[in-house]
Amino acid sequence: MKQILPIYSTPMKIVSRKWIWPINAIVFNFLRLLPIRNKKLWVFGAHAGEKYDDNARFMFEYINSHHKHIRAVWLANHMTTVERIRNMGYEAYRIGSIKGELIELTAGVALYTHSIYDFGFVPLIGGAEVVALWHGVGFKIIYNEKYKGFRLWLKVFLDTIYTRTYRNITLATSQYMLNKWKDIFHVRSKDIYITGQPRNDIFKQEIRLEMVFKEIAIPRGNKIVAFLPTYRSLSQGYDAMEKIIDELYFNKSFSALLEKMCYTFIVKLHPLTPKIKLPSRNNFLIIDYESVELNQELLCVSDILITDYSSCFVDFSLQNRPIIFYTPDHADYLRYSGQNDKLYDDITKLNKANNIKELIELLKAPSNIICQVTNDIFEDPSIRNTCYSENVYRVITNKIGV
After folding, report:
1. Which fold has domain 10-196+385-400?
2. CATH annotation of 205-378
3. Pairing relation of β-strands 192-194 and 263-268?
4. Which end of the chain is more exposed for a tag (fewer CB within 10 A), N or C?
């Protein structure tokens, strides 16, 4: 059976404690004064050191394959993760080990997906060129967008001393995202570069069904409808997502539609969502990370995407395939999880279902109307048909002079 990497949970809670801020502020800024960085040593991390995934993984593997003059090193919390990466032929070390600490102290470039805590609770990357690859381009109001007035001023001031989202280079997919990142993270326009996301280079490759579903039998000739819902806050209820899945699973009209249209409905839950114990049926599957590890691979082989508030639809739009938004708990979600950017409503209303009956009607005649609108907003013309990973590489090397 394929070895699966652990899913992050506790470390993200630990590193959010405010008591660690002054320690990191001192260590980080002290290291910035030391001339100990090697421009050809690049360190990678993701999901608070808990996962080998996302933009950092795709960029890491691209550098190892196409730019071997760069020493690319992955840092992770667990030796199981480290050993797996080493078995793939790459260099990796455990965060907190002597070798891992030395790599952090001397790396000239550090690339992360969530925050600099991807390199440990006390990141030793001060003075490196820090690149925020990030992990999506969604609509949720986050970071500085949640503050106003004096609170915003105070946060921006403290961020100039130290912040877990520190970056020298911020990557965007379009002018819209450039402006959004500028406001969210209070960074200068000249430090934001339109490159695309490295993980989306996978859409230019041939990914076969049997490569993705190695342990799952998909009926031959069926179209795959992937449902990728986002995480529900526990305050909304521990079983909030389970209720949504149950309603679909036991709805006879929905089951009849799947049979008639030759659809295989695949639910892939957010990694923080509690597991749902429903037996899989021939055309209704609930999968976890033991079945399909990478979301991007699942998106590659899916014919239709259904989601709610997840930014995965921005990635999926690059394939110009039908997208449906399904939000039966919209009011509760907004109440407990926060507001979305107005643009979310503008896009989702083009093809949105609020209940199962509406979802069935949209699945009868799938539409890709959302793709063109989404790509016009999120995919800059200057990067279309380019290699996003190479774009990122060139931005970094041009800036640091390698």
Report:
1. Rossmann fold (3.40.50)
2. 3.40.50.12580
3. unpaired
4. N
